[in-house]
Write a structure and sequence with these properties.
The complex is a heterodimer.
Chain A lengths: L2 H8 L1 H4 L3 H4 L1 H11 L1 E5 H8 L3 H13 L3 E8 L2 E8 L1 H22 L2
Antiparallel strand pairs in A: 1-3, 2-3
Chain B lengths: L2 H16 L4 H19 L5 H23 L2 E3 L1 H27 L6 H30 L3 H19 L3 H26 L5 H4 L2
Helix pairs in contact in B: 2-3, 2-7, 4-5, 5-6, 6-7
The chains are: A alpha+beta, B mainly alpha.
Chain lengths: ~110, ~200
């Protein structure tokens, strides 16, 4: 095996990291959604500390990737935007965690 | 710290944040006060106070908390675990009670007398265990204090020879006061957002 091939193999865990989740704002959103069944827009905004616009844009990206499901409902005639992770999203965050653990283990030489 | 621990901590922080409104304390406090009044007046009229507050929990949560910090539904597996512990505890209490009332004749007189004298201390241990379980599962740290408080107040009351309703009511009123204090702090910290900000 050549040295280049070996280096490429060493870097494989980093290449496996999902760039969509790796962005700090989206990682925050995914992390919060992974620990609850569902949350509304206000709750996510409060917990993540993101602005309305920032949260909206990033949620759209996650929705386009099929990681989150966004539904609108009315509770006591007040609209509520409910967000939940899809099965794909849950799998993606789990894979991300595993991959990050591998990368950290490799870096720390464990 | 492992990722699992990080996620568990995040989950507990989120849970604690959702219960910073003190509503759960107010409900528990009212239930205990109802129990204390029932003991004091030996009247079943106050029984309703033991369970009525539970009915108001969800409507109050929707009216006070959700418009301010939003809505969240926690994973049902955690809720099942939480209720599983409480149901197991309830079953234990019922079994002990059933055994006590049905076969009291077969209980050694010494034990029977001890139970009669210290039944509230036994109850205090059960309540303390329930609060400890809830605190461990949810991360609501003040529940640890409630667990310690029930043991101290009940043991102190028995030791000083205070009438049981007095220390039951004292315990209920203390939890109620903490709940109201949390609610006031919460309402001040999170004023109702304007109509534009209320929803996405």
């Amino acid at each position: 095996m050549s040295e280049t091939e070996s280096s490429a193999e060493d870097l494989q865990p980093i290449a496996d990291i999902d760039p969509l989740i790796h962005a700090p704002t989206r990682l925050k959103i995914m992390a919060y959604l992974s620990i609850v069944e569902s949350a509304d827009f206000t709750f996510l905004m409060r917990q993540t500390g993101l602005t309305r616009g920032n949260l909206s844009v990033n949620l759209r990206k996650l929705e386009e990737a099929g990681y989150v499901n966004i539904t609108k409902e009315f509770v006591d005639r007040i609209p509520r935007t409910l967000i939940r992770l899809t099965n794909e999203g849950r799998q993606a965050i789990q894979t991300y965690r595993d991959n990050m653990q591998n990368v950290l283990n490799d870096l720390l030489g464990e | 710290m492992s990722q699992e621990q990080d996620f568990k901590k995040l989950q507990q922080r989120t849970y604690e944040s959702y219960h910073q409104d003190g509503l759960i304390d107010i409900i528990i406090g009212l239930s205990i006060i109802g129990f204390g009044l029932m003991m004091a007046f030996d009247s079943s009229v106050f029984t309703f106070m033991g369970w009525m507050p539970i009915i108001f929990y969800v409507p109050f949560k929707n009216r006070l908390t959700v418009p301010r910090i939003g809505y969240v539904k926690f994973s049902s597996s955690r809720i099942h675990l939480f209720f599983g512990i409480f149901m197991a505890l309830l079953a234990l209490v019922l079994l002990v009670g059933f055994y006590y009332f049905i076969s009291s004749g077969s209980i050694p007189p010494g034990f029977s007398a001890w139970i009669r004298k210290y039944y509230l201390l036994v109850l205090a241990f059960i309540v303390a265990f329930a609060f400890l379980s809830a605190a461990f599962l949810t991360g609501i740290t003040r529940f640890y204090a409630y667990a310690l408080l029930v043991l101290l107040i009940f043991a102190g009351g028995i030791w000083l020879g205070v009438d049981p309703p007095i220390y039951v009511l004292t315990y209920g009123l203390l939890i109620e006061a903490v709940g109201i204090w949390h609610l006031i702090r919460f309402l001040r910290k999170y004023p109702l957002p304007g109509h534009e900000d209320a929803h996405e």
